[in-house]
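for the recovery benchmark. tokens below, seq after
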């Protein structure tokens, strides 16, 4: 509420107390001194219905035994996801939390922890990591991130093109060991992806049991291991220049990669690749010869094996 005013917290607290006293919401005490969660009461559902807003009671959220209420096992994960979405909202993003996404699309194999549209119209797919993933769970996460980055996923009528990974600055697993989420996710993506992946990381500093005191955003490029392996072989086989055309080519099995400098655009390099003399139809431009060679290797890596086909 009014995120850019100094009294926003006080205004939100006053509103919360008013909603509780009018029995429009129910206050649930969170564990570990994390404060209260507010869930919609039946009276709140009826009030919203008067304004043609469909809603359902949150009375069934968590579990109540006698007078003891226990939140769902994902409560810390949910608070972190909403904290990041709130910060993005303050920065001018339009946000959509997981609950809204689930209401729109139902049950899917993989849902984001939220969607956010930047002021320039780019949609971000939010993934929150607050528990140690391994094996098939980490591979599925890496596959989803690669698919989103390749514009292969459509959800809620939008096609997100970039992933935002949020994690705690200092996090421990169930054994008490420190977990470096950024390093683990980066390695998993590099192993699974065929293309280099552009990511945004959100490192969150914890406040209390589950609150957020600070978020540091940073951009990163994850080089795909498959592309790196193809490029290493191309470099080992050698790039042979054609004296007349100036085109350099290198071989990888039955595939050939080409790079050349555009004579009409100084500083611009073109790249292409083909297999058995037939082009892939995905030639492009790069800002340097090293980038052009990597993009050509990327074309070959995608043709050799596509994990999403």
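predicted aa per position
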């Amino acid at each position: 509420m009014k995120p850019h005013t100094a009294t926003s917290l006080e205004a939100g607290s006053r509103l919360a107390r008013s909603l509780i006293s009018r029995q429009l919401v129910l206050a649930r005490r969170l564990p570990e001194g994390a404060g209260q969660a507010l869930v919609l009461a039946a009276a709140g559902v009826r009030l919203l219905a008067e304004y043609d807003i469909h809603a359902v009671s949150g009375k069934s959220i968590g579990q109540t035994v006698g007078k003891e209420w226990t939140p769902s096992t994902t409560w810390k994960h949910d608070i972190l996801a909403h904290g990041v979405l709130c910060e993005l909202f303050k920065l001018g993003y339009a946000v959509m939390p997981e609950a809204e996404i689930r209401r729109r699309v139902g049950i899917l194999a993989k849902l984001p922890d939220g969607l956010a549209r930047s002021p320039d119209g780019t949609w971000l797919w939010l993934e929150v990591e607050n528990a140690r993933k391994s094996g098939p769970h980490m591979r599925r996460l890496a596959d989803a991130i690669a698919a989103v980055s390749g514009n292969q996923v459509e959800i809620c009528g939008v096609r997100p093109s970039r992933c935002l990974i949020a994690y705690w600055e200092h996090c421990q697993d169930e054994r008490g060991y420190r977990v470096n989420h950024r390093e683990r996710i980066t390695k998993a993506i590099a192993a699974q992806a065929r293309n280099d992946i552009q990511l945004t990381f959100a490192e969150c500093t914890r406040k209390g049991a589950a609150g957020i005191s600070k978020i540091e955003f940073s951009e990163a490029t994850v080089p795909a291991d498959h592309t790196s392996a193809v490029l290493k072989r191309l470099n080992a086989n050698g790039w042979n220049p054609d004296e007349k055309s100036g085109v350099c080519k290198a071989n990888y099995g039955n595939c050939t990669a080409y790079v050349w400098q555009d004579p009409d655009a100084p500083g611009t390099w073109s790249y292409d690749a083909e297999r058995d003399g037939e082009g892939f139809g995905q030639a492009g431009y790069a800002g340097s010869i090293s980038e052009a060679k990597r993009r050509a290797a990327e074309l070959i890596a995608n043709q050799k094996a596509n994990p999403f086909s």
